[in-house]
Design goal:
The complex is a heterodimer.
Chain A: H1 11-19, H2 25-43, E1 46-49, H3 51-66, E2 78-82, H4 109-116, E3 120-125, H5 159-166, E4 172-177, H6 183-189, E5 192-195, E6 215-220, H7 223-233, H8 251-254, E7 263-267, H9 277-292, E8 296-300, H10 308-323, H11 342-353, H12 356-368, H13 375-395, E9 401-405, H14 421-426, H15 433-437, E10 441-448, E11 454-460, H16 466-478
Chain B: E1 6-17, H1 56-68, E2 72-73, E3 76-77, E4 80-83, E5 93-96, E6 103-104, E7 107-112, E8 115-128, E9 132-135, E10 141-144, E11 151-157, H2 164-181, E12 193-203, E13 213-218, H3 221-240, E14 249-253, E15 258-261, E16 274-275, E17 282-283, H4 286-294, H5 300-309, H6 314-322, H7 324-336, H8 341-352, H9 371-383, H10 388-401, H11 405-412, H12 420-432, H13 435-442, H14 449-459, H15 466-477
Parallel strand pairs in B: 13-14
Antiparallel strand pairs in B: 1-11, 1-12, 2-6, 3-17, 4-5, 4-16, 6-8, 7-8, 8-11, 9-10, 12-13, 14-15
Helix pairs in contact in B: 1-4, 2-3, 5-6, 6-7, 7-8, 7-9, 8-9, 9-10, 12-14, 12-15, 14-15
The chains are: A alpha/beta, B alpha+beta.
């Protein structure tokens, strides 16, 4: 049975079609693998394609479906996993040379839940090394090219995931968001990505960058796709002590629930000078659309926004310096070829294995945690974090969902910012605050620049307010057609 | 010797390995003796993506330890990461406690040469153990992570100890306590009890503390005494020469009987502590503490006082209190025959203890002579139905055959020979056989009575009732 034209196919459509017997899981897998073989050379989305594994899984699913079994809500749907999710028996590198050849003996909870729902893993997706970056140029392997314009970055750190979904190389994907690493690439690639509430999706098996800031989450072509993926991966996990024990919401249903009477907060700090004018226009038009859909617009303020980047970089580097201490060449991963002492073994292994950005952040983080300086840096950042979170709490007393741009700029050129790490950090301005507060935030396409680059609209909800976020995003998507636009296949 | 001018000031950090079923942050068995790396999982190996999940049994054990020491249990405590690089530390940090430990304050009591001592505790906190490096003679080093993640309680004392001897007794007291609580084997040789010592000296009349050194690699009670003694002497000599004590960590070498400074790189270690983000704060509410408090057994101190009040001699009390099962056995036996408590203690110490390898066997239902059975035997001896010697023989048979004393006595007529005419004859025969001794006795050497008693006992195979024999001989000798 032939598979549909997969370009632009929504995950929910594919799942329904497979369940209805319109096509086989094997057909879907073959079609995607073919597209990957043809197009990914130009894009660089995948670090590892597991064709054999995908075919085997597809065949097994087809057999069960033929026997009348209920294989799960995502039966037959091919997905990609950011290479930060450990996959049992399949190499996992976190985009780094220090984990080249690392074959995990266990599976992450999020990817296991996808598989249990019938989804088929096509392979591991490219990313900035250890999730540190906003352009996927920090991958130790090769950069990713934005499907909308091959000279441009896809965003990061989940650049491979966003680009793969945008280019229809998989029906959906998982990524992680620590300072914006799902939302910003979703914005640059014109698709939907959501960073859920902290603890909503288990971090067990997610290679840690910053423990209190890492949020695993889904990418989809449409809001419903992202909702469907989130319903499958969300929920309490006893293996993750920070996992929330509350029931998973009905996210897909929320997408069509409408927003009549909802109050949309617009924080003034997110609309200041330096914003690209095309981005500003697109977001303002989006707000008008939301108004027409029945919501009221409320101006609000998040006064501590200006401290968010400093707070973020103090906390994430401190935690990263700690989480990356385990890469010492002793038990797994890269080990230097020869060393005259233990110190040399450590220094050479880590010197050879880590790229420049992880080294930079490890050094910053080590500095931040120095004895005698805890209060001045990390301790201070924790207190600032509390104030930033309080800003959101206060804002949500006046509105139901906040709407802002996802990024002040559209996708920049490869190489443009790579030489200036600080410039790169500053691009995170609209995305770093929600992870600090642990609140859910989604990005969806709300237009294109004259040059044809996607622009992202961010919806932020209160803790465990994913449903409110999906309502707003769904209402906006329902009244627009940005989500139906597709990049040309690279030739 | 110069040492008299100085006062030794000693504080100890004792690590207690908890005998929980599984590790502190993961579900691998906290077991020993398996193949290397048999008891491991992603979390205790520090694999990428792994996360810790707190073991409640470990917290409960630590709470009981804190309560037993009279510490204040924090209703909310936190774990913290303590960073350093070493092959046996898989994550590159230990999960320990820093600012908010589970227990604060408290004390440990012990007796030395009959005198009671009390050492104040600073704190008790929980942490995970590291793996073990194994250095092969070929020059290759191996790491076994079976031990990585086993729960530890670290007991930090105030510098209240004043001698190596006191220090050893303090550690012994902790060992006894953790065994009473059933939370650890407290075995230094096996590593379930470890100790680092901080030693400094000051002039006897001084109030400020001197520079302290840290001693490591102390693996037995003997090491505790030897290493600290050595350090006190070493520091005293340096101070006498007007030299300064360097704050450093020194490793004890038991084979050579000296300590050596570790390479200076280890000195100013910055552990870069910060709160463990993967674990929420631990809540130990009043209800939990209450339950743990109620579940505490009678502790060594209290038991010592109770046995002393009972009139038991100090020597015996010390043995009865040494292990919980010994006192438990004693109390159960005593309940059957309270008046015979002193004798019961003797029999327990001399006969029962000699026959068990592990004191925990004492309260095991499978023990050949349970407490009530021992009490019954002791009563028979006290009543005179059995002589002491016969009592021992009966005990041996009770132990071997798992029978009660009454049963053995009834079926085997091992009772004392109290038949008066038979005894009179035996006495008469004994005296007739030793006329010289009889004469000497009558001349005033009254001590010879024992000689005659001995002869009668020998002739009757030990079965004669010694009191009756004494009485009869007394009459016959006039």
């Amino acid at each position: 049975m032939p598979a549909p034209d997969l370009r632009g196919a929504a995950l929910t459509e594919l799942a329904a079609g497979t369940a209805a017997g319109k096509w086989s899981a094997r057909d879907l897998v073959e079609t995607y693998l073919e597209r990957i073989a043809q197009l990914d050379k130009k894009l660089g989305c995948f670090l590892l394609v597991d064709g054999e594994g995908a075919r085997k899984t597809a065949d097994a699913i087809d057999k069960r479906l033929a026997a009348g079994e209920n294989v799960g809500p995502l039966a037959g749907v091919p997905v990609g996993l950011k290479d930060i999710f450990v996959t049992r028996g399949l190499e996992t590198t976190a985009g780094s040379k220090i984990l080249k050849g690392f074959i995990p003996p266990y599976e992450s909870t999020a990817s296991a839940r996808l598989a249990a729902a019938g989804a088929i893993r096509l392979g591991k997706l490219n990313m900035d090394e250890f999730a540190m970056g906003s352009s996927n140029e920090n991958s130790a392997y090769y950069p990713v090219h934005n499907p909308w314009n091959l000279d441009r970055v896809p965003g990061g750190s989940s650049g491979g995931s966003a680009a793969a979904v945008a280019a229809s190389l998989c029906a959906g994907a998982l990524g992680t968001d620590t300072g914006g690493s799902i939302r910003q690439p979703a914005s640059f690639c014109g698709i939907v990505g959501i960073k859920p509430t902290y603890g909503r999706v288990s971090r067990y098996g997610v290679i840690a960058f910053a423990s209190s800031l890492d949020h695993p989450g889904p990418f989809g072509r449409t809001v419903e796709d992202a909702a469907a993926l989130l319903e499958v991966i969300a929920g309490h996990d006893p293996m993750d002590s920070t996992s929330i024990p509350r029931p998973v919401g009905r996210y897909r249903a929320a997408c069509t629930a409408g927003i009549t009477g909802m109050r949309i907060g617009v924080p003034k700090e997110y609309f200041q000078a330096g914003m690209d004018s095309e981005v500003e226009n697109a977001v303002n038009l989006a707000l008008a659309e939301l108004g027409r859909a029945g919501a009221s617009i409320v101006p609000v303020s998040l006064p501590h926004t200006q401290y968010a980047i400093a707070t973020y970089y103090l906390i994430c580097t401190a935690e990263a310096s700690s989480n990356l201490a385990r890469y010492d060449g002793i038990r797994f991963g890269h080990r230097t070829a020869s060393a005259a002492s233990l110190e040399e073994l450590y220094a050479k292994t880590r010197g050879e294995g880590f790229g420049a950005e992880p080294k930079r952040r490890i050094m910053l983080g080590t500095y931040v945690l120095r004895a005698g300086y805890y209060e001045a840096y990390y301790g201070k950042a924790l207190r600032a974090r509390r104030l930033i979170a309080d800003d959101f709490t206060a804002a949500f007393a006046q509105c139901d969902v906040l709407v802002t741009p996802t990024s002040p700029i559209p996708a920049f050129k490869l190489g443009e910012r790579a030489q200036d790490p600080l410039q790169m950090y500053l691009a995170d301005i609209y995305t770093v605050a929600p992870p600090l507060a642990g609140v859910p935030a989604l990005s969806q396409c709300c237009g294109f620049t004259a040059a044809g680059l996607p622009i992202g609209l961010q919806s932020i909800g209160p803790p465990l307010g994913e449903e409110a976020v999906f309502r707003v995003a769904g209402a906006y998507q329902g009244r627009t057609d940005w989500h139906t636009r597709l990049p040309r296949d690279p030739s | 010797m110069s040492r008299e001018h100085y006062q030794a000031v000693i504080g100890l950090e004792v690590h207690v390995q908890l005998a929980t079923r599984t590790k502190i942050f993961s579900s691998s068995a906290a077991a020993f003796g398996g193949e290397p790396n048999q008891y491991t999982d992603p979390t205790c190996l520090g694999l990428p993506g792994a996360l810790p999940v707190l073991n409640r049994e470990a917290v409960d054990a630590a709470v009981r330890l804190g309560l037993a020491c009279g510490s204040r249990i924090r209703s909310r405590c936190r774990f913290a990461r303590k960073h350093y690089f070493y092959p046996d530390l898989p994550k590159g940090f230990q999960i320990s406690q820093y600012d908010e430990p589970l227990c604060e304050g408290g004390r440990v009591s012990f007796r030395l040469h009959g005198k009671p001592h009390q050492v104040r505790l600073t704190r008790i906190h929980m942490e995970d153990d590291a793996g073990k490096n194994v250095h092969d003679p070929s020059g290759v080093s191996f790491v076994d992570f079976n031990r990585a993640g086993v729960p530890l309680c670290e007991i930090v004392s105030e510098p209240d100890l004043r001698s190596a001897e006191e220090a050893a007794e303090y550690v012994r007291a902790i060992r006894t306590l953790v065994r009473y609580l059933g939370i650890s084997d407290g075995n230094m040789e096996e590593g379930s009890l470890r100790c680092d010592a901080n030693v400094s000296l000051r002039r006897s009349e001084a109030s400020e503390l001197g520079t302290k050194t840290e001693l490591k690699n102390i693996n037995s009670f003997k090491h505790v005494r030897d290493a600290i003694e050595h350090e006190i002497t070493r520091q005293a000599l340096l101070l006498d020469r007007g030299e300064v004590i360097t704050q450093e960590t020194r490793l004890w070498d038991p084979d050579r009987g000296v300590s050596a400074a570790m390479r200076s790189k280890e000195q100013a270690h910055d552990y870069r502590y910060f709160p463990e983000p993967d674990l929420p704060p631990v809540a130990v509410d009043e209800a939990w503490q209450e339950q743990a408090r109620n579940a505490l057994p009678e502790l060594p101190e209290a038991r010592y006082a109770r046995y002393t009040d009972m009139g038991l001699p100090a020597q015996d009390t010390a043995v009865l209190v040494a292990e919980r099962a010994i006192g438990d056995y004693f109390d159960q036996a005593r309940a059957v025959a309270p008046e015979a408590k002193k004798k019961i203690a003797n029999w327990l110490i001399n006969e029962v203890l000699a026959r068990v390898e592990d004191t925990r066997q004492l309260m095991d239902p499978a023990i050949p002579v349970p407490p009530a059975a021992l009490a019954e035997l002791v009563v028979l001896v006290e009543q005179g139905t059995l002589s002491g010697k016969m009592g021992k023989e009966v005990f041996a048979r009770m132990w071997q055959e798992r029978r009660s004393a009454a049963d053995i006595v009834a079926t085997e007529a091992v009772a004392v020979l109290s038949d008066r005419p038979a005894l009179e004859q035996a006495c008469a025969r004994a005296l007739a056989a030793s006329p010289d001794e009889v004469a000497r006795y009558r001349a005033g050497n009254l001590k010879l009575l024992g000689f005659f008693v001995g002869k009668v006992m020998k002739e009757t195979g030990g079965k004669a009732d010694p009191r009756v024999v004494n009485e009869i001989l007394g009459k016959l000798l006039g």
